[in-house]
Structures are given as structure tokens and as C-alpha cells.
């Protein structure tokens, strides 16, 4: 029989090697922990464009779409810088009726009685019309601009208090809010050019909630100013959004469309007189409560001039929300109104 001799150091090496191999083998046999299974929660809503809405007739044209409003039946009133200027579509997208023309279309509103109000900044007037387009009242003097109790200078929007009084953001030329009675008689005006509280730089839109709080989109100052009907400042929501348009729901949800705050842009040949946010760097909508708390934010892809795809926005200007929570957004460069279906 042959005898093999090993010294102590060799034995220790063999033992350590065996233990190492055993540990590595055991480690290799262990299973990795399972991937985590996240609970299916929905922390926010989202929106999906209805690319087939509306069924616009071939002979109906759109230019920039600065105004949109929804009535109690969820019919959609589009206001465009084309002819016909006011186009009314059903929730399903059928054209119901249309009227008017001109190039000064800005915001459009529907009052508690169903009357349609349009703001024509080029003619310096606000018009009250029936739901079928019959003229009821004109505020301001057509084609005359001034800063007094009878004129506007490129107004931008109008809103209505619970007693029917009218508040106008007189907006591109005059930097003020004008208060009128429901019959159009001048009451007062407040505001001037500036960035201090109580002053404006392009009051671009205006809205009123159920408690008669007045919201002014002070666009160049990247803020929303809140007033009572006496013209006293209540609050100022600063550096949250560059506001372009408003929508107030029956639940007093304050919707704002526009872009996130940004620095002033260098003027160029394409936009020689561009104010703040022109062109915008993004496209957002925000929902606030009446205290200014942000409840919801949603951003949309920004389209390229002339190459906008469905679901993209390009200089979003106006917003409306129907009874189901669907959102309608009109833009300037995109020259269209789009319907976005709310998804839960």
C-alpha cells in the first residue's frame, strides 16, 4: 500500500479551499428576491386627445383659436380669427351653427342666461349675442380706442358677477379692469402698467367664481391676481404660471392654461414684439382651488409651427371643461381646437 504524506499547511489550504467552494456554491444556489409588485394606484388623471373631434365640414376654416366656452348642454363654442368666427359644435363634434367674422377674436364666454359674449380686441369692443348669434349689446365704440368710461383699448376678456355686472380685462392697450353694470353703464376702473400689486402688464383674461372673487391673468407678470368686486386686491398667485386663459367650473375649480414661468425672450424677426411666454417653452394646464392651492397640473407636448401632431399644443390660449371633465384647448400657432378626454 502506498502512503501519501502532506504537511499541515497543505491540509489547511485544502480545507479553506473546500469551504470557499462550498460557500460559493451555496450562494449561487440562492434565489434572488422577487421583483416588487407595485399596487395599482392612480395618483392623477390624464388626458387623451380625441383626434377625430370635431367633424369639421370641409368648407369651414380655422385660423388661430383664442376662445372656447362650453354651455350647460356641453355644446362647444369655438371663437376663431376666420369666417365664420363663432362655430358651435355638439359634444360629439357635429357643427350646429355659426356666425360672424373678423380678425380680432380673443376670448368668448357664456353667461348664466346662455347669452354668448365675444371680445374683439381689433375693434376694441365686447359683444353680447344670443345663442344663435343675434346682437343684443355692444360695449365700447367700434374701431375707436381710448382710456375712458366709453372706450376700450384692445380688450381681452369679460366675466360676470352674480348680480350680472360685467368686468372687462382691458388688456393689450389699457392695463386695467373695467367694471360695468349688467346694462353696460360704467361704474369704475382700476389698474395701470406695472409689476407692483394692483398693477398689470397685459391683463390677458378674467374670470369670476360663485362668491364673486375676480381672477385676472396678469400674463407678463407671471401671476394671477385676485380681487373683490370693489377692486380691492385679495390675493396674488405669483411665479406659478404664465396665464393665458381661464375656465371656472360650477364647483369653483379655477382652471388656467398657459406655460411655466420663464425669462423674457430676445425679440427676433419672427416675433418682433413678443411679450413674456411668446414663444412658450412648454404647454400646461393647472387646476386651483379658490385659495390658490394647486390641485392638478398636466403638461402637453409642444408642437412645431406648421407640423403640429394630434395632442400637441402650440401657444395654447384658451380652455374649457365640460360636465364630464373633458378639456377643450385652443391654440394660436396650431390654429385648432382639440378635445382631450379625461382618463381615470
Tell me about this structure.
This protein is mainly beta. The chain has a single domain, classed as Neuraminidase, CATH 2.120.10.30. It has one helix spanning 8-29, and strands at residues 46-49, 67-70, 76-79, 86-89, 95-99, 105-110, 116-120, 125-129, 135-139, 155-160, 166-170, 176-180, 186-190, 203-208, 214-218, 223-227, 233-238, 242-248, 254-259, 283-288, 294-300, 316-321, 327-331, 337-343. A hairpin with a 4-residue loop joins strand 15 and strand 16 (223-227). The longest helix is centred in the first third of the chain and has 22 residues, at 8-29. It is globular. The model is unreliable at 1-6 and 13-17 (pLDDT under 50).
What's this, in brief?
This protein has 344 residues and is mainly β. The protein is 6% helix and 38% strand.
Any idea what the radius of gyration is?
29 Å
The CATH topology name reads: Neuraminidase
User: In angstroms, what separates the terminal alpha carbons?
Assistant: 84 Å
Secondary structure tally: strands: 24
Task: Look at the structure and give the mean pLDDT.
Answer: 91
The geometry reads as: globular
CATH homologous superfamily caption: TolB, C-terminal domain
- Give a quick account of the main beta sheet: strands, pairing sense, barrel closure: 4 strands, antiparallel
Uncertain residue ranges: 1-6, 13-17
Question: How many structural domains?
Answer: 1
Count of alpha and pi helical runs:
1
Features:
single chain, 344 residues, mainly beta, Neuraminidase, four-stranded antiparallel sheet, 1 helix, disordered N terminus
